[in-house]
């Protein structure tokens, strides 16, 4: 199993900035070469062609030749892809970087994927890829279903509700003021503060769930689709995809089971008698609690949905209420 440990660098950041500018210069050269080929109806240059054109520029750019070749190869590989890579890896021989030792590295083999990266604020990080042994799979003694939402961030099948912190709304006024005043650095810092707080919230919640439960079932809510609707701001602020990714890799690291379950009609079906007597879709979205006409049990909409998500996973049945191994 591969894990990436990120450490913030506190020395030689000026050198890293100059190296980043040099890498961007090489990338722009590759892009201009591509445009020239398109203009004159020539064959697209391959990574080998770009390496030949940039040969001998290592000294002038103060870049390692291997780094220049890596940039050219990456450009040729990703020019047909949708997203451009953020930053290339550097080869800085003989340089010693001081980092903030925020946490120790686990026992394992350090892989070749170790590199540097920079965020929007200009802070540099050292990313160390470590290969660790996979944890033994835990026997399923306890399971939980999770229904992700906006009013509450998550409803658990245990009856607990996790409050949505709405981090973007907390700093929305400060962010809007900085953007209107065109204070770019201040706006960037506000965005970073929101992202860090959201990441911290996701990490703490996912770690608690993975440690307490052996099996985790999460609804497969389409975050990308909802991000194109009028709910986009709230959906992106919640960060469902990021949270599910954390649950997935942490469950693997701790030997727990993780599964994404189809949540269609999960709020409409009664988790006790399986009859469809609950509120219907968007029209009844305002109905947060209801009484099943089939069995007479009162349900909270979100908690009922979380229980149905767990039941549909096949690891627990409504009648028995115990894990199925």
Summarize the structure.
With 325 residues, the chain is α+β, with helices and mostly antiparallel strands. The chain is built from eleven helices and eleven strands. 23% of the residues are buried.
Give the helix/strand layout.
Blueprint: E1 2-8, H1 13-39, H2 47-53, H3 58-61, H4 65-78, E2 109-110, E3 115-118, E4 124-131, E5 143-148, E6 152-156, E7 161-163, H5 167-170, H6 172-180, H7 184-212, E8 215-219, H8 223-226, H9 232-238, H10 240-254, E9 257-261, E10 289-291, E11 298-300, H11 301-312
Parallel strand pairs: 5-8, 8-9
Antiparallel strand pairs: 1-4, 2-4, 3-4, 5-6, 6-7, 10-11
Give the strand tally: 11
Percentage of residues in helical conformation: 40-55%
Task: Give the strand order of the largest sheet, numbering strands 1, 2, ... along the chain.
Answer: 7-6-5-8-9
Count of spatially separate domains:
2
Query: From the alpha-carbon coordinates, what is the Rg to the nearest angstrom?
Result: 25 Å
Give me the strand/helix succession: EHHHHEEEEEEHHHEHHHEEEH
Mean pLDDT: 84
End-to-end separation in angstroms reads: 25 Å
Note the total helix count.
Answer: 11
Strand content: 15-25%
Q: Identify low-pLDDT runs.
A: 316-325
Structural class: alpha+beta
**Largest sheet data:** 5 strands, mixed
Described by its quaternary structure, the protein is: single chain
Dominant shape: elongated
């Amino acid at each position: 199993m591969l894990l990436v440990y990120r450490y913030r660098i506190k020395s030689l950041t000026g050198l890293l900035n100059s190296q980043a500018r040099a890498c961007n210069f090489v990338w722009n050269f590759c892009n201009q070469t591509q445009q020239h080929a398109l203009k004159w109806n020539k064959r697209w240059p391959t990574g080998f062609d770009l390496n030949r054109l940039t040969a001998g520029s290592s000294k002038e750019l103060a870049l390692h030749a291997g780094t220049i070749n890596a940039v050219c190869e990456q450009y040729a590989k990703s020019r047909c892809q949708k997203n451009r890579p953020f930053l290339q890896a550097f080869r800085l021989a003989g340089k010693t970087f001081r980092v903030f030792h925020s946490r120790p590295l686990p026992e394992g083999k350090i892989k070749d994927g170790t590199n540097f990266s920079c965020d929007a604020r200009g802070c540099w990080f050292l990313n160390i890829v470590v290969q660790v042994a996979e944890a033994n799979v835990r026997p399923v003694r306890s399971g939980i279903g999770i229904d992700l939402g906006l009013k509450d961030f998550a409803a658990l099948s245990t009856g607990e509700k996790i409050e949505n912190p709405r981090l973007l709304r907390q700093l929305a006024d400060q962010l809007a003021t900085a953007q209107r005043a065109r204070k770019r650095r201040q706006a960037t810092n506000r965005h970073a503060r929101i992202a860090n707080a959201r990441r911290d919230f996701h990490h703490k919640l996912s770690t608690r769930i993975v440690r307490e439960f052996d099996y985790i079932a999460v609804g497969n809510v389409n975050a990308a689709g909802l991000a194109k609707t009028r709910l986009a701001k709230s959906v992106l602020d919640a960060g469902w995809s990021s949270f599910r990714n954390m649950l997935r890799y942490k469950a693997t690291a701790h030997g727990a089971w993780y599964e994404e379950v189809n949540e269609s009609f999960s709020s409409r079906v009664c988790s006790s008698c399986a009859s469809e007597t609950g509120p219907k879709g968007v029209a009844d979205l305002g109905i947060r609690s209801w009484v099943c006409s089939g069995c007479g049990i009162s349900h909270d909409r979100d908690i009922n949905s979380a229980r149905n998500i767990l039941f549909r996973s096949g690891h627990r049945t409504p009648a028995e209420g115990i894990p199925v191994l």
